[in-house]
Design brief:
Length: 329
């Protein structure tokens, strides 16, 4: 990974909210699944990090606490999606213009869109009796533009290259309409990857949000991330090198005591999962303290006081090692 990766704010986005899932562990893929178990785990981590950034972006628009659960990944088809929705839904299509080739689709319930857009326009989220019209679709498109823009930034960090998107296109559609599938994308006509999240916005929204990806696009993203990780591994000499950068003799070890209490159940576990992912993938971070800002920091140690760790909070030590950008010699 390069040093243009997750900032402290983006790390906070990963750990913000954290809510339990009704089924947090997807079933293991069957023998004829187009994705391996490892690929499913990897795309789940990608979605988890990306949606953490998106949740922070949505919070800034609605001024309400936004929580997006750890994703559940599975293989689905359009008939399955139809069976999950009784009323018309808002379908948002996001296409990539740089970094990766393809598109994905988000599906939100109509009432959820009304509440979110009402909050965006200064309401309290309760006056949602009007029919969903162009003003709602325009507002949710802007919200998705900011959310998916933040998501693309996180994806850029993981892929180690710039990822850009087109402005999202939002439409109110009846999933039961057989003509709907024609305007979405060819990948919808077969099996695809379904990533399901639980979405909470304050006390107003407690719902399901789905993201649909072509299988080929998922495999491509997973392959690129694995390739980047292998490149980092090949360029390393012991623990002294990361991405061609040499650990200087004056390396800095920064230990931080973290206490997370007074939050909703499940938040602490989500935070620890995100930190473990950052440590495992050797993502270089920017760490901001009250005194100094440290760049090029690698999370090299994470210890948790087990008797303090529970569903509401934890206490432990994060150890960061500083890496300079001097080329390896």
């Amino acid at each position: 990974m390069s040093d243009t990766t997750l900032s402290q704010e983006e790390i906070n986005a990963l750990i913000a909210g954290g809510i339990p899932d009704s089924d947090p562990s997807p079933a293991a893929p069957s023998g004829d699944s187009p994705l391996t178990g490892e690929e499913i785990d990897t795309i789940g981590e990608i979605a988890n990090i990306s949606m953490g950034s998106a949740a922070t972006a949505l919070f800034s628009l609605v001024n309400r606490k936004v929580e997006i659960s750890t994703p559940v990944v599975s293989i689905a088809n359009w008939d399955e999606i139809i069976s999950l929705y009784e009323k018309p839904c808002v379908l948002i299509k996001i296409s990539y213009t740089r970094g990766i080739d393809g598109s994905n689709v988000l599906i939100l319930k109509e009432d959820d869109v009304k509440i979110i857009t009402n909050l965006m326009m200064g309401g309290d989220g309760t006056n949602v009796d009007d029919e969903l019209g162009e003003i709602h679709l325009s507002a949710i498109s802007e919200a998705m533009n900011q959310m998916m823009g933040s998501s693309a930034t996180s994806l850029s960090s993981m892929l180690n290259k710039t990822v850009d998107i087109t402005p999202p296109i939002s439409d109110l559609i009846d999933l039961q309409d057989t003509g709907t599938i024609e305007g979405i994308g060819e990948f919808i006509k077969g099996d695809f990857v379904k990533i399901q999240f639980r979405l909470l916005v304050g006390e107003l929204v407690d719902s399901i949000m789905m993201q649909l990806y072509p299988i080929g696009l998922v495999k491509d993203m997973v392959s690129q991330i694995r390739s980047n990780m292998q490149t980092d591994s090949n360029s390393a000499v012991g623990e002294d090198y990361i991405n061609g950068a040499r650990n200087q003799p004056d390396k800095v070890i920064l230990s931080v005591m973290e206490t997370d209490t007074g939050h909703a159940a499940g938040r602490a576990n989500r935070m620890l999962q995100a930190l473990e992912s950052i440590k495992r993938n050797r993502i270089l971070c920017t760490v901001v303290t009250s005194a100094l800002t440290y760049t090029g920091m690698l999370l090299s140690g994470l210890s948790v006081t087990e008797d303090e760790k529970n569903q509401y909070g934890w206490q432990g030590t994060l150890t960061f090692t500083q890496y300079r950008t001097t080329a390896a010699v």
